[in-house]
Amino acid sequence: MERTEIRITGFGGQGVVLIGYIIGRAWSVHAGGHATMIQSFGPEARGSACSATLALSDREVLYPYVRRTDILVAMSSEGCEKYVGELKDGGLLIHESDLVAPAVRPGQRACGVPSTRIAEALGRRLVQNIVMLGFFAGVTRLVPLEAMREAVRLSVPAGTEELNLKAFDQGLAHAETAASAPSLEGVKP
Amino acid sequence: MSTRTDDTTAREHPIAPFIRMERMPHIWCPTCGIGTVVKCYATALADSGVDLDKACVVSGIGCTGRVAGYMRLDGFHSTHGRAIPFATGLKLGRPELLVTVFSGDGDLVGIGGNHFIHAARRNMDLLVVLVNNFIYGMTGGQNAPTTPLTAHSSTMPFGNFERPFSLPHLAASCGASYVARWTCLQVRQLTWAFAEAIGRKGFRFIEVIAPCSTLYARLNKLGSGLDLMRFYHDNVEIRNGADTREVDIGYQEKIVCGKFRDEERPTYLELMHEHYRKTLGDRYVPMPPEGGLIRGED
Amino acid sequence: MKADPRGVLTGTHYLDGDFACGEGAMAAGCRFVAGYPITPSTEVVERIGRRFPMMGGTFIQMEDELASMAAVVGASWSGTKCMTVTSGPGFSLMMENIGLAAMMETPCVVVNVQRAGPSTGLPTMVGQADMMQARWGSHGDYALIAVCPRSPQEAFDLTIHAFNLSERYRVPVLVMMDECVGHMTEKVVIPPAAEIEVVPRRLTARPPAEFLPYQTNGSLVPEFARAGDGFRFHTTGLTHDERGYPVMTPECQAKSVRRLLDKIRLNAGEIARVEEEDTGGADVVVVSYGITSRVARLGVGLARERGVKVGTLRLVVAWPFPEARIRELAARVKAFVVPEINMGQMVLEVERCAAGKAAVVSVPHAGGNVHDPEAICQAILGAAR
Ligand code: SF4
User: Fold this and answer.
1) Is the Cβ of C12 closer than 8 Å to some Cβ of chain A?
2) Same domain membership, residue B239 and residue B118
3) Largest Cα–Cα distance in chain A?
4) Contact at 8 Å (CB) between C371 and C299?
């Protein structure tokens, strides 16, 4: 993989950092790549738009921050507005379709998933982020699914693995419906 | 305390085994009260039967700060105001130690005041002996947080107008389990208080009023150290169990002495062990009493 | 000896630098930590506070950093390995008792996750501007050791190394991390305990009657006795003799201070550690440390594309400074380029050692972000001309 920059944003309590953590862990620990995650700290993290960034690569990540993101995962409209500007031309916006209006520039793509509704249907609104993660995995196919599942299993609270894997699979399934899965061509640098 | 160094004296003096006689003469002025306090403490220690190998003294900086250097125990002469946190680390690093802090008023409640109140709040397992001479001695008679109103000091040349701390009240209200005040002239009571406090747990605070003949007496024209001693002797009022709100010391006024508090309250270590045992159960591994040193075969 | 397995979380983890540093401390045998919360270092003690109760360790949150550092010095004399953790403002407060640790020759580790200063500065953003304070921050003459991790993996490895050095030389060892490394999450491999080499606290074998706390017996590092073992020793922050007794003379001062410096200076060859790449035949050598050493490699790559022969030298151990190696290189390279997230600190050391034989170019950054690799590249191109 060439260096791929990802930002995940949402409001506090949506589990933004956990999404970044699982993707990074899956790619580096379980798929043998390099992944550097930075979570936003300070006043920024205390407000309503919190975010985590990831740089994934086959080689060591030398520059730790993202500058022009390839993929923006937005779970709140405030976060989306704040960060969509750094999404590169041809970049991909993945959004919570009930909460975020996909305002992308021409040439950029957007695809959404009602992850909150899906999580609620599963009986636990809290797993919304893992539904989003499954959707991300399915849409981007950046990280092998087995590595993702392994990372989910090892990163969620003990006793909730099954529920979370189910949430992951539902998000994944949603990505596989033709309507929501845009071509990824041109997204990768 | 004797300032003679010949061996006969060393053998004869009952507390000589507690003193680094090779360091005599000490630096304290004649008729300074600190030496008496050391003698009382050593006597109490000898009578207590505690394992002296496990007894440590930690001092800060100042005249009383030198105590750690004169006692033949593991002794630590730390930095100004930091004797209490230093002692806290020593105690927590090897919980079986008996750790006594010996320092002055400027050190422990001036620059070190924050540490004092927090150690009392935690009921940290320390015996804190504060020798109060109402002034900074080592640096030459500057105002202290204990200088009585209107008393003169070199930095309050027209008399002190800052309200001083009433130390027993400070210690008691922060949570100390044992609080007493004596003057260094009440040798028997003081020795007894040390013995009692050695046998107690938690934050034990003993304030000892001692004359500073060289500075406090001189700056206030109170005569010789001997005169000051006489004054303290004649103006002590013993009131065991007194309400610590009523034991302020005014300039050349009566000094209320006694044991003001002696309560069994859970100490920092007890609270910690109990809490972790409750919350973690069998998973809790406390630090062994002999400390966290990990021995290797190398 | 090998690490105590209770402190070693063997496995492949995804950890941030702060957590990895905490894991390194526990693996090294640290069992006492005193600290005061401060961004961006707090996660280190949060990690430790969570795991210590299960391994016989004690963590205490002190009332301030003065107290934290004093408690660490006290705890070290109990024989328990110990550490404190902070960032710039707290580091300033710790200077008093870092000096005491140096004077009493107390093994301990101090972690500074550097943020941008001065004063409160940018609490959540990266800086590397405490490097000179690390060396010179406490009053008087003394020497100590400072290491600079470049990644969470190194935060783990170098924290263990810091403990080992502090035991070997009886000095405070500083882990000079930066906010970026501290808050960056990456893969961290923690080996089995049996593969981790740790230096234990070495207690003197002498009986108390034959022991003097600062007698060196020809070596530069005295033997250690801990409190509570019957040695009835004394130690002080005052200038002292072999007995640990205060001696207020210029002669004793000269002897004590010289040895405090010599034990690091004369062992610098063993302590100093750099990592070099392509310095043989290079015209320009980029000297950097911590997160900047990673960003600098991008700048180096850009310069190479433009035909410059560039090598890199990374300060794994910043103090003692690798004087000998910089002198050697100065004799054969054209220039050194020194990017760092401060307005020019370690560059002064490079300059001192280059002594006019090679040009030295500073690439300063006031903090809050890492360098733009292009800025480093431009400095290299300029230096190569
Ligand atoms: S200056 Fe005062 S307190 Fe200090 S030794 Fe002399 S008499 Fe005692």
Assistant:
1) yes
2) yes
3) 44
4) yes
Question: Ligand 1: which of B133, B147, B218 to mutate, most ligand atoms within 8 Å of CB?
Answer: B133
CB burial of C179-196 (b: ≥16 within 10 Å; e: otherwise) equals bbbbbbbbbbebeebeeb
Domain shared by B189 and B239, yes or no:
yes
* Arithmetic mean of pLDDT, B174-203: 97
The per-residue pLDDT of chain C, averaged, comes to 97
Chain A hits for C125, Cβ within 8 Å: 42
pLDDT score at B12? 61
Domain of residue C62 covers 5-195
Tokens for C273, please give them: 């550690």
Residues C178, C54, single domain; the answer is yes
CB contact under 8 A, A38 and C13: no
Q: What is the distance between the alpha carbons of residues B246 and A33, in angstroms, rounded to a whole number?
A: 71
**Structure confidence at residue A189 (pLDDT):** 39
Residue ranges of C 56-95 with Cβ closer than 8 A to chain B: 56-58, 60, 62-64, 66-68, 70-82
| Boundary-marking domain end, from C143, C176, C195 | C195
Beta-carbon separation of C236 and B287 below 8 A: no
Asked if residue C337 has pLDDT above 80, the reply is: yes
Name residues whose C-beta falls within 8 Å of residue C218's C-beta, 6 or more positions apart in sequence.
Answer: none
Does any domain span residue C230?
A: no
Sign of the C-alpha dihedral computed for residues A26, A29, A30 and A31 taken in this order: positive
Any domain includes B2: no
Q: Point out the domain boundary residue: C167, C195, C223.
A: C195
- Which residue among C123, C124, C186 sits closest to A28, beta carbon to beta carbon? C186
Residues B65 and B182 reside in one and the same domain: yes
- The ipTM of this complex is 0.97
- Tokens matching residue C75: 């705890």
Strand bridging mode B127-132 / B98-104 = parallel
- CB of B228 closer than 6 A to ligand 1? no
Residues B191, B281 within the same domain: no
The total number of structural domains that make up chain C = 2
The response to whether residue B215 sits with its C-beta less than 6 Å from ligand 1 reads: yes
**Cα C227 to ligand 1 centroid, rounded to whole Å:** 29
Contact B63 CB / ligand 1 (< 6 Å)? yes
Give the domain range for residue B276. 268-298
| Contact predicate C23/C47, CB 8 Å | yes
pLDDT at residue A188, as a whole number: 45
Q: Answer whether B84 contacts ligand 1 (Cβ < 6 A).
A: no
List C residues 178-237 in contact with A (Cβ-Cβ < 8 A): 180, 183-187
Same domain, B199 and B280: no
Q: Are residues C161 and C307 in the same domain?
A: no
List of chains touching A (3+ CB pairs within 8 A) = C
A181 touches C at CB < 8 Å: no
Residue C291 with chain A: CB contacts under 8 Å: 64
Instruction: Tell me, yes or no, whether C16 and C129 share the same domain.
Output: yes
Cα–Cα distances in angstroms (integers) from residue C219 to residues B129, B196, C214, C266, in the given order: 39, 45, 11, 11
Same domain, B133 and B273: no
Domains for chain A: give ranges and CATH numbers.
4-177 (3.40.920.10)
